[in-house]
Amino acid sequence: MAARGRDKDATALTEAFAAGDANPIEAVQDALDRLARLNPSLNAVLHQRPEAAMAEAGKAAARWSDRRARRTHDGPVADAPFDGVPIAVKDLGCEQAGEFHHAGARFLVELEWRGTQDSHLYRLLRGAGMVSIGRTNTPEFGTTITTEPAAYGATSNPWDVSRSPGGSSGGSAAAVAAGIVPVAHGNDGGGSIRVPAAACGLVGLKPSRGRVSTAPRLGEHRGGFAVDGMLTRSVRDAAQCLDVIGRPAPGDPYVAPPLAPGVSFADSIEAARSLRPLRIAVSVGAAVGAAGARATEPVRHAVEQAAALLTELGHHVETDTCPHGWYSDELTDHAIVVRTVGMAAEMDGWVERLGRPMTPEDIEPANWWSAELGRSLPAAAYVSALEGLARWRRGVMSFWRQPGAHADPASSGFDLLLTPVLGDVTPPLGYLSDPAEGARRLRSLIGFVDQANVSGQPAISLPTAHDPDGLPLGTQLIAAHGAESLLLAVAEQISEADGLIDLPEQLPGPTDTGPTDTGPTDTGPTDTGS
Fold it and tell me: Which helix (H) or strand (E) element contains residue 51?
């Protein structure tokens, strides 16, 4: 059986380009046509660039025509694996020179702020031949797990337009799930790739800390919690995308362990067929009262199904197991300090760039509150939080067998940890908006994602089940730092075993009837740092 998502993924598209069965001009025009039909009901892509996209598609088409004429390639090109593939770019990070860049913030919308340079990441995407059709909606500064900024209004989930597509990469996830583009950029500082992937039935890989460069503008982004990545329809696209973007820049504050010479992440797809038995831990949450990491019955059942499949595939699976302190309230408290101080510093950076003070009218209440809290904390509190998180990381890292180890599956050290992504199915739009209830509701949903951001480990969300109403549920695999290859190989193994739900040919949510007026929303005093 063919692995899930391969008939309409980016790899299939480039294979069609190579064979002459399709060309980038047609592919990009089709993406723009679908955008015109579906975006009014989704509000996923904000800053569209049809003319520039078509011009870039024309250049890609000429390159493919030249390759075929010279018969130099029978398939995708190693240095440009996605040449001519339409993508979308999240309007947070991944700066593009001359393009609008508003990060969901009202004051940047009013200033019509544009990027002043191409980021290292966008240069890599463009160098791989990818064609951006526009920038996607995000909550203001990416600080929550739903995409409902006051500046641009809510993005709807293609599975059900009354529900959230997740956040903060919700616009990108909606665009991929609706079939507008096969892949889209996102970033993850508190679940912001994995949560939208789970909400929209996609594959969402959060790479290891240091795998994807934040050059040239950013250094230790969000305390090192945040990393860029891609949302995809298939595991093989996730692997190929990581080969494109996983290239450090000179001066990066840290770099993930490199692959061996001549090895790529795409090799993980073939490695799935000869994978040794692994030792995999399974956890569906903490005891009552601990960090809010508890899952509803449908979510628990989805994890149990995934665990059963992994057992059938020959792996040694141990239930109710996780690193000591994995669901620690202390972890949450330290992370809040780092994020709120980071928000204060980010606002101070805009004060310097704009030459005027920021006011409560400039940004949403939740982020104003976060910045004010950050400014109130002494420098010693920030350093203490960093030290506390370092101790926590060292404590949990011994749980994982390090990459390259070949011990017996029953020996000490786990290869992977399997958990939920969200504690429940994605919520209705507006569910996190109430200032009094938003923080409590948020806490009950996100107890499973922050750990990998703090530890810097790679994690992947896989669409393994539906809830009773037919909405997608995601399960998460987490590996040791630097072990994306293992993570991708197991994910592909699950996909080959028909363990992933498929995206319907036409999702029920999007319509052609025009925009949905969700109105502006605020998300209360919460900060996931997504």
Answer: helix 50-70
90 catalytically annotated? yes
**Phi, psi values for residue 115, rounded to 5°:** -65, 145
Which residue in the list 41, 169, 192, 208 is annotated as catalytic?
192
CA–CA separation, 236 and 488 (whole Å)? 8
Asked if residues 132 and 145 have their Cβ atoms less than 8 Å apart, the reply is no
Nearest Cα neighbor of 51 from 115, 114, 152, 132 is: 132
Rounded Cα gap, residues 483 and 417, in angstroms: 12
Place of tokens 């004060």: 351
With tokens 């009901």, the residue in question is 41
CB atoms within 10 A of CB 253: 13
What does the pLDDT look like over 242-274, one tens digit per residue? 999 999 999 999 999 999 999 999 999 999 999
Q: 168, 208, 433, 530: which is the annotated catalytic residue? A: 168
Q: 409-460, pLDDT tens digit by residue?
A: 555 799 999 999 999 999 999 999 887 788 889 988 999 999 999 999 999 9
Active-site residue (options: 90, 208, 234, 461): 90
